[in-house]
Structure formats: C-alpha cells, structure tokens
Amino acid sequence: MTGKTVLVVDDEQAVRQMVAFNLEREGYQVRQAADTVAARGEIADVRPDLLLLDWMLPGMSGLEFARALRRESYGQDLPIIMLTARGEEEDMVRGLNVGADDYVTKPFSPRELIARIEAVLRRAGASAPGDVLELGGLRLDLGSHRVSAGEQTVEVGPTEFRLLHFFMAHPERVYSRSQLLDRVWGPSVYVEERTVDVHIRRLRKALERHEAAQMVQTVRGSGYRFSARP
Amino acid sequence: MTGKTVLVVDDEQAVRQMVAFNLEREGYQVRQAADTVAARGEIADVRPDLLLLDWMLPGMSGLEFARALRRESYGQDLPIIMLTARGEEEDMVRGLNVGADDYVTKPFSPRELIARIEAVLRRAGASAPGDVLELGGLRLDLGSHRVSAGEQTVEVGPTEFRLLHFFMAHPERVYSRSQLLDRVWGPSVYVEERTVDVHIRRLRKALERHEAAQMVQTVRGSGYRFSARP
DNA sequence: GCGAATATGACACACCGGTGACCGCGCCCC
DNA sequence: GGGGCGCGGTCACCGGTGTGTCATATTCGC
To answer: Is strand D less than 7 A from the beta carbon of B194?
Structure first.
C-alpha cells in the first residue's frame, strides 16, 4: 500500500506505537524517531509527507526543532503537527507562530489525530492520491475502489485489490515474494512466502474472465511481474 | 470569496480582536459584539452569515442566546459556532442539540477556527433553498429537507438525511467509517465507528422500499460507497 | 527424466459487517 | 410533571467472506 509517509517524533515508545498502529490501519506509512537526532536521519532518509512532533523532547524541544526545520529548504514545506500535553496550550501559540500547522493535545483520540492529519495534508495540497491507474485495458480506481476491464467490473477481494494496485503502480518490474509481502502486506506482517502464490492465483482467477490474467507473469526463481506485454 | 460577514460575540476584547485579525486576514468581514444586546443589534443591522458565540456571556448565556435565535425566523438559518473553554466540552453536547453547528475550544489555533468556519459555511451555503441533489432516480432537496424516489417520498431521519446528503454530494467514492464520522457527524464528535454501520442500515432500510438500497454499497475492509451503478 | 519451483484445490479459522434489541436522553403532549 | 415517543448510540450475536496454510498436482529448466 503506497500511502503518505508520516514521521512520529516522541520520546515515549507507547505513544509512537499507538500512533503508528492507528495510522498504518488507515493506510499511512509510519516512521518513528525518539529524539531530534533520529528524526533528522529519518527526514533525510525517507522525506516524510508530514511530521508529528512532540512538544517535550529530550535535548532540543519540539519548538526549537520545528523552528530549525523551518529555516531549512526541505523543512519549509514539511507540514508539522505538534503533540502537546494538556495545560501547555498557551505555549502552543508560540508553536503555531513558529510554523506548526496544527496541534493535538494528549490524550487524543485516534480519530481526532487522523482528522487533523488529513486536514493538514489536504491544505498542503495535492493530497488526493493518484486517482486512477490504467494499463493495458485494465482500470483501477482508487477513489471508488473499483477495478474494471473495458466496460465490465472485475470483482477482487481486498488483498487482491492491494496487490493489483501495487502491480499497476509498478509495472514491468519483477518483485520477489518477500518484496511483495513487504510492500503489499506491510513491513510488520509475517506470513509464509507461499501465501503470495495463493493471492497471485486468486488475482489471476479474477482477471481471467476478462482475458487479462496473462498480465500477471511468473518469473521463475525470482518472483512475479505485472506487464501489459506477453 | 466575496467576504462573508462573521459576527463575534465575546465579552473579552482580546479574544474578539484576535479572531477579527485572523478572519480579516482571510478576507472575511468581521463585526464584534460584547454581549447579547449588542449582538441583537448587529444581527438586525448587518445580517451576518455566521455567528461566533462565546459560551460564557454576561447576562444571558450563549446557550440561551442560541436557543432564542433558533426560535426566530431569521435566526433559524444563521449558522452558529460556539466558543468554549476546555473542560466545558460536556456542555457542548447540549449546545449542539440547541442548534449550534459546531464548536471550538479555547484556546484554538487560527487555522482550526478558519477550517471550522469554512466547513460550516460550506454546509450552510449548500443548503440554499431550492438546491437539489439528484442521482439515479433519487432526489434530495436541501431546501425542504426532503428525499424522494420518483414520485414517492422517502422517510429518513435527521442523521440518515445528513449521511445521504454527504453520499449524494460525493458519489462513486469509498469513505472509511472514520472519514464518514468526520464529514457527517463532525470532527468533534466521538462515537464508535460501528455506529456508522447502524446508520447505513437505517438508511438502506429507508431506501429499500423504493428499490434504491443497492446504491449504498459496502466495500469490505475499506468502508462504504454511494453509487448509481451496481 | 529429475528435482526444484510453482500452481491449484481444499480447509479451518479469524475477522468483518449485518442485524435486531436495548438503553438513555430530550422533547412534546397530555 | 409524568408518560410516551423519536432519535441516536452501543452492544451482542451470527453468518458470510476472506485469508493463510497445507497437501498435492503440475510445470519448468537443465
């Protein structure tokens, strides 16, 4: 699943994991950092789309960190949501002045957090993920969550949909079972590699009524490839 | 945007000015009133498009004022956002029942305030009388608050109406339970996600006498979609 | 033709969503 | 002021679907 990437910076592991769990369930990629040093590394590394930043951090405070980021070229466009404990609200005025886009007071509900993230991402512009993928007569519509071949609708289950989505976003390239598990099932899911075979088969079955099954190709010894060419 | 007029009713001058500063920067016309008496005058005078109403006011409370307004002809359509201090959230449930369209807890970020104002105005603007949504034989009349299928009237409750309204305004797109709660119930309402299921069912029940229930579609693992196509 | 890799069918189980019932809260009407 | 009513939210239960695993068949490359 290719969602937006969110970096959570908080010194409490429990908070990070709670956030990660809920965001991943919504389709986000989540990276974690316990302090600003690790955060720097992650930012340079994965270029997150949004930063969830705890107000109280060991060493440099979240406020200073946000200010520092805002002075840098990449950080200027990086949306920031501050996490703060109740009672620190007055400080948040300063936080917002420094350039945070919003803040959430702990404890917060997952829904509230997600709502604010989506609001900020929407504002940051172009948050609507690529809406329709089309390849070799196959159409996959992310918005309506539909797959069609020509005029007909292709019935696929949730996992097959994600698998096909990944394939259509990365065609003409071979992926090993383990890579597919990573990218489609998620990094924190462990299942047998052979499971991929089964879902490949299910995907082919769904496609074969529309003469599109040959687009899912086996590369013996390496993995699978999605291609419009035979 | 042609500069909508917002009336701020709050006894603290600092709050009024902060709000005014931020709203004017966004292009709004802002009027101020320190109490309900002055507010009455302003309302009669400038016919504001939206009312920002402090919960605690000298004399008459914001709640009573809102209730009183709702009983009057002009006030019925006037969108109201309540301003409240943290800790009074429980009371706000009553505020919302009285007819406030949303509320914001102090201290709030300018962003948050503006986002909510825009959300409320969008909702209010969409319900200009005579505005009708039509899709697949279903008609939803915002003005008269009525739903009809062909010649027959479809009986739906308030929540089902809002749900259907949102769906018909955003067809052919999947929304997760969490998104629906955000967009239909509002960002500041916290209920169980499964509550959505129940209202989906109630909506379907209302529609099925008119053979329109199949327009409300389940996308397993993702959410719900409203569509004229099967 | 042989071994390894992949396809396929079957199956058990977890999970998701549908559904009916219940409860509590305002509100309105006696 | 009491009782009924409508509405909204929650819960518990159930049935179906989707998913992962395994055993077995089949194909591929050498």
So the answer is: yes
CATH topology of domain B5-126: Rossmann fold (3.40.50)
Q: Is the CB of A178 under 7 A from strand C?
A: no
Distance of CA B144 to the CA centre of its chain: 16
Strand partners, A216: A226
> Which chain A residue lies closest to B115 (C-alpha atoms)?
A119
Select the residue from B182, B193, B217 to test the A interface by mutation, using most A Cβ atoms within 10 A.
Answer: B182
- In angstroms, rounded to a whole number, what is the distance separating the alpha carbons of residues B100 and B108? 18
Residues of A in contact with B182 (CB under 8 A): 111, 115, 118
CB neighbours of A58 closer than 8 A, spacing ≥ 6? A11, A35
pTM of the model: 0.69
**Residue A57: predicted pLDDT:** 81
Confidence at residue B110, expressed as pLDDT on a 0 to 100 scale:
65
- In degrees rounded to 5, what are phi and psi of residue A169? -80, -20
A91 touching B (Cβ < 8 Å): no
Query: Looking at chain A, which runs of residues are DSSP E strands?
Result: 5-9, 29-33, 50-54, 80-85, 102-106, 132-135, 138-141, 146-149, 152-154, 174-175, 216-219, 223-226
Give me B26's structure tokens: 């966004």
| B111, B220, B225 ranked by CB distance to A102: nearest | B111
Q: pLDDT tens across A15-30, in order?
A: 888 888 888 777 788 8
Closest CA to B6 of B106, B124, B95: B124
Mutation test of the interface with chain B: which of A144, A161, A185, choosing the one with the most B Cβ atoms within 10 A?
Answer: A144
Q: Write down the domain spans for chain A.
A: 5-123, 132-226
Distance of CA B67 to the CA centre of its chain: 16
Q: Does domain A5-123 have CATH number 3.40.50.12780?
A: no
CATH assignment of B132-226?
A: 1.10.10.10
